[in-house]
Design a protein that fits this description.
Elements lengths: L17 H13 L2 H8 L3 H15 L4 E3 L4 E3 L1 H25 L5 E7 L1 H6 L1 H11 L3 E7 L2 H9 L5 E7 L9 E13 L10 E5 L5 H13 L3 E6 L3 H9 L5 E4 L7 E3 L2 H4 L6 E8 L5 H15 L8
Parallel strand pairs: 3-4, 3-5, 7-8
Antiparallel strand pairs: 1-2, 5-11, 6-9, 6-10, 6-11
Helix pairs in contact: 1-2, 1-3, 1-4, 2-3
Length: 305
């Protein structure tokens, strides 16, 4: 497909694609194609293709590729300023027409993994489209978030559950991804007996899926590291203290996926992100809920993918 051009621009100059600019900005901010792909929920190959199209359009290299990171070329630094301005102007213009009448406060709950890894990007986009809506976020465990929503302390809750499990009758699946055993490249934790694992406290879906898989395979194990925060579990893996159940999309060097046949481990299966909202909470709540659904639906494993 050819790049669209503007009939009113000098010599029919090509038009910049806003989604490609968002990808460019994510890479510039993370310093990594793979981390950017996780942040915007695209595959690394799709991200690479978008940047290739942008560089071919501009006739300039925007990034210097190195084995573990990328950084901007001088032309890329120039493009970064334009990209930020164009995205802000685009979101402001669209927001003026789509959401001038929507305002109020929305109370949103999410588990730690989503609250730190996904929500900031979602809310940043939402705030540009709905500047009059204030979102208050509570990060916590899925069972506590369900309880708070049921007693009226939250308007929307995002939950994590084993695929197919519906912990609440109003839960709506919006994203699905494999959970995989994860260790450090070159690490020896996998060879220890009993097998050391890092998991969250009781009530965590990933913990339950991991323990059930270990019991199925008959592995002797010990819980060597317990923490609610995914970043702390990742730190334990990086120090080769244990192995852990992780979403496949989070695994990047120096972490690695441990294949089940490698150690006789049972597969963990898929987990799902569920959206839970109470009905008739107003336009602001519905706008945020739909924004979250649309965001995940545009991902490789999303509900609409």
């Amino acid at each position: 497909m050819s790049t669209p051009t503007s009939p009113n621009s000098p010599q029919g100059l090509p038009l910049l694609d806003m989604e490609i600019l968002r990808t460019f900005l994510a890479i510039a901010e993370t310093g990594s194609f793979s981390r950017a792909a996780q942040q915007i929920y695209r595959t690394p190959s799709a991200v690479s293709m978008q940047i290739k199209r942008l560089e071919e359009m501009l006739g300039r290299a925007l990034f210097v590729r190195e084995p573990r990171q990328v950084h901007l070329t001088p032309e890329g630094e120039t493009m970064l300023g334009y990209a930020r301005q164009l995205l802000e102007l685009n979101d402001e213009a669209v927001g003026q027409f789509l959401s001038p009448q929507v305002g109020g406060t929305v109370r949103l709950g999410a588990p730690d993994d989503l609250g730190t890894r996904v929500l900031p990007g979602i809310l940043s986009q939402f705030s540009r489209s709905f500047p009059a809506v204030q979102v208050n976020v509570r990060v916590g465990r899925s069972p506590d978030l369900m309880r708070r929503l049921d007693i009226g302390e939250l308007d929307i809750a995002l939950l994590i559950a084993e695929a197919g499990n519906r912990p609440h009758p109003l839960a709506e699946p919006i994203y699905r991804e494999p959970l995989v055993w994860t260790g450090r490249e070159g690490g020896v934790a996998l060879q220890r007996s009993p097998l050391p694992i890092a998991v969250a406290d009781r009530g965590c879906a990933w913990r339950r899926m991991a323990l059930e898989a270990l019991n199925r395979s008959g592995h002797r194990y010990r819980i060597a590291y317990t923490c609610e925060h995914t970043s702390a579990q990742e730190a334990a893996i990086l120090q080769d203290i244990a192995i852990t159940p992780f979403p496949r999309g989070l695994v990047q060097s120096p972490l690695r996926v441990i294949e089940e046949e490698e150690a006789g481990l049972s597969p963990l299966g898929d987990y799902e992100v569920l959206l839970l909202r109470m009905p008739a909470r107003g336009a602001a709540v519905e706008a945020l809920a739909q924004h979250v659904v649309d965001y995940f639906a545009g991902t490789p494993n999303g509900a609409a993918a």
